[in-house]
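Justification of computing resources. Each target in the renewal requires a structure prediction run like the one illustrated here; the chain below, 198 residues long, is used simply to show the kind of job we budget for.
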Amino acid sequence: MQDIIKDSLKKHISYSEYTELMTQLVADESTTGADKTEALINYTKLNERRMKRWDKTIKLSEDAKTKIAQYKKPTTWLVLTESWCGDAAHVIPAINKVANENENINLKLVFRDENEALMNQFLTNGGKSIPKLVMIDDETGNVVNTFGPRPSEATKLVTDYKETHGVLTPEFKEDLQRWYNKDKGQNAIADLLQLLDV
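Resulting structure tokens:
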């Protein structure tokens, strides 16, 4: 496991590099990942706009900032993502806001399709769902915890809907987008504070 993580860390990019790449992909009418379909290219365009909006509008409360500041262990947050992933566009800006508050948290992003061995270690219900945050203790190299692909409340919405209807419909996906827009990153932030145990 540690070798797989080390291999993936060699390929990481920072959050600012990720947002720059998103802008470039939009200009090039392209997308990350193995499939360069028109649909995924369009999702990348949509997600670039979402991320820019969230970078400006997601706020950390003073209470959250105080708690984050209490975290003392040097830790890497290794996040699997792709530019076309809607959940990633909503969640990763919140992850970045939290990581920016504490120099002990080092956020590194890698692409799912380029890191299959890593992704296969962190499946969600057998699927390669992203974003997936892998929390690594820098001292030991051990995986301490994980988060994702969605905040806890959104996960419950998805699980409940699947149990009732079997599949996620386009209408439900629109409802989920509305949930993200209303929540403004706060559920993800609360989940990340639990991850830090502060």
